[in-house]
Amino acid sequence: MRKSTQLMTAILAGAALALAGCADGGSQTAAPLDLAKAPEYSGTLSILTKFGGDPLEPYFEDLAAGYKKLHPDVSFELIQETDQSIKDKTKTLTASQALPDIYFTWAGNWANNFIDGGLAADLTPAIAPGTEWGNNFGESALKAFEKDGKYFAVPLYNNGKFMGYNQRIFKELGLTPPTTFEELMSSCSVLKAAGYEPIAFGNKDGWPALHYLQQLFAYEVPAQVLEADFNPGTAKLEDAGYLKAMKQFTALVNACTGSGKDSNGVLYTTAQQALAQGKAGMYYQEILEFDTTSSDKSPLRKDGLGIFKLPAASDAKGDTKAIEGSPEGYIINAKSRNAALAADFMKFATSTLNAAKLSAPPYGQPSAVKGAVSEQNSTSPVIEGINQVNEASNAIIWLDSVTVPEVADAWLAGGEALIAGTQSPEQVLASVRSASSAAR
Amino acid sequence: MVTRTSVLVVVGRVFVRAFLLALAVVVIYPLLWMLLNGVKSNAELFANPFAFPVAWRWENYATAWNRGVGDYLTTSVLVTVTSTVATVFISAWAAYGLTKVNIPFSRTVLILILGGLMLAPTVALIPLVKMFQTMGLYNSFWALLILYTAFRVPFTTFLIRAYMMDLPAEVDEAAAVDGASKSRAFWQIILPMCRPIIVSTVLLNILFTWNEYLFAMIFTSGGALQTLPVGLTNLMSKHGTDYPVVFAGMAIAALPVIVIFFAGQRYFIRGLADGVGK
């Protein structure tokens, strides 16, 4: 069921043409949305969500029904897609100039394409930090969709990457959550000696390696340099921190994982199960995975899932308080005739009540609204993770979405090569640099 | 007395049978693996993917059904049946007109129809989305029906026309002498004679429509309208997938096509072989 390259090429070409057409010869962000104007509570709101499939699908249906109860003249057209289909659907709708009033977005390069193409309404007057609506969100969540000081999307739920560990195994072996990268490496030896796989790891999809690398880059490369390097226009990719981070990653793969150089052939779900079944001591995972890894039926639920931030080396030169992760959000179409109504609906969607509902089972998507994740609706690792994300000095967007696709692909190939041992960190950095120059 | 030739014949037969057996294993094993893993737990699947299930969890099939596979199956059956019937009848009519009736510009019509074979669906995707949205057909059952029929008519016409061309002209002449109209000759004489190729094209269209992903993914959304290939991806999530339930869903999805194919394989092979010989 994999989509063909043909499909991607055709859609991308169309999307590029559509965006180019909208951009009028260059980057063109939309004028601020006139939110002072009261919405007209009538008409049809179209929404493209990433809530397709079980168990997420009813969430937006219930939201629409709830809003309709308040405003009976408003009707909804929901296009609900899944992780697998949302990219192709969005690209096709963009190319056909048929984007709905509200549509899903990832942070980073994906959102920037819509902002630059003039397809994202400028929500700054309504949602910037300090505004009534904006104060409901953590600042790092809002900043994920900021460009040139303007805010372009409503963050719906948050995410971050943490090392999950088996509390029983750690206790039995007298281990405590490591606070430095060196301590993490020593705890691997203890776990290995006791017969456990220290860190379960599977990189068949490519992005698990990028998640490690991005967090290590944030620790080892000064924040301003890192930020500049994400953009091919300003990238130099010369900082020694990149090489140090890649060496740390290679050392971790070789010393701490059971699959080592063969990790490129292991599914991340296999690694997830190794922690869930008590066979591995640790597994690096997203907050959204916590409840799956530690599901009711898993031995890990009994053993206890603990989390800690991937520790930085004691001599790290970057931002050691930064955390990798970013919210996912919803853009209001700048060309929508119902923009004011769409903004009103998104305010409704991010109200305290609906945010709490989103964070609770069966949805389990930790809302980006402050205080929505609580003991009443979430497990303790999720609460701890979200609190750490909200308190982090900086939320670093995933490496495969923060930069342009050409550079992301070069990092993806580089991560696989580092694991397999076919390229040195210097060679990987050189190929990323060359991809970045080509994308300039 | 054992001759050299008879030994060679026996060795040859053993070799052919061993090859066919190996081929059968290559085809059947993945299906069996899917069926077996559909009754395991997620933990069991990842721990021992090639072992027999410890406990047979048939409830995975019920879970898959309740998580939407039932709806996807209904949609798939409806779309497949209607588009196959529409495609085969339109194509058979077209083929009859092009081979048995003297119509003006028949060569141009033939080129126009067969020209459809050159049009890749991906190329037409974006204008089709725009057109269907304008017509109010986007995200509807009609969208899939129209698309599947339109994109399958050229190839189906090509196959049926090739078969009809080799039917003896005397049959048409006899029907005409007996006073049968062109329409009656089509329904009562030509169409029954084309049974092998009709069954073949029906099977080919069923296989195509049942497995089609691109149009179903782009032109529909939400559980009520999605077909099995798209619906099954709804059972998977980046942050946690119950794989045995997915395998159970895949087994349910594969079963009807396997049954239909086995039921019609005699006609399928005959129809295509006859068509190729034209």
N-to-C span of chain B: 46 Å
Mean pLDDT of chain B: 89
Q: Could you give the count of β-strands of chain A? A: 13
Give the overall shape of chain B, derived from the CA principal axes: flat
Report the end-to-end length of chain A measured between terminal Cα atoms: 34 Å
Shape of chain A: globular
Radius of gyration of chain A: 22 Å
Helical stretch tally of chain A: 20
Radius of gyration of chain B, Cα only, in angstroms?
24 Å
Give the number of DSSP strands of chain B: 0
Strand order of the largest sheet of chain A: 2-1-3-12-6
User: Poorly predicted ranges of chain A (pLDDT <50, ≥5 residues)?
Assistant: 1-5, 16-27
Largest sheet of chain B: none
Mean pLDDT of chain A: 90
Helix and strand composition category of chain A = alpha/beta
Largest sheet of chain A: 5 strands, mixed
Question: Which structural category do the helix and sheet elements of chain B fall into?
Answer: mainly alpha
Number of separate helices of chain B:
12
Order of helices and strands of chain B: HHHHHHHHHHHH
Range of strand content of chain A: 5-15%
* Oligomeric state of the chains in view: heterodimer
What report would you give on this structure?
The complex is a heterodimer of chains A (440) and B (278). Chain A has helices at 5-23, 58-70, 86-95, 109-116, 124-127, 139-143, 167-172, 181-193, 207-220, 223-230, 240-256, 268-276, 290-293, 299-303, 339-349, 352-359, 380-391, 399-402, 405-420, 425-439, and strands at residues 43-49, 74-80, 102-106, 146-147, 150-151, 154-157, 161-166, 197-200, 280-286, 305-308, 323-324, 328-332, 395-396. Chain A is α/β, with parallel strands linked by helices and 440 residues long. Mean pLDDT of chain A is 90; it is low at 1-5 and 16-27. With 278 residues, chain B is mainly alpha-helical. Chain B is built from twelve helices and no strands. Chain B has helices spanning 4-37, 42-47, 59-100, 106-115, 121-134, 141-165, 169-177, 182-193, 195-211, 214-219, 228-234, 243-276. At the A-B interface, helix 1, strand 2, helix 3, helix 12 and helix 13 of A face helix 2, helix 5, helix 10 and helix 11 of B.
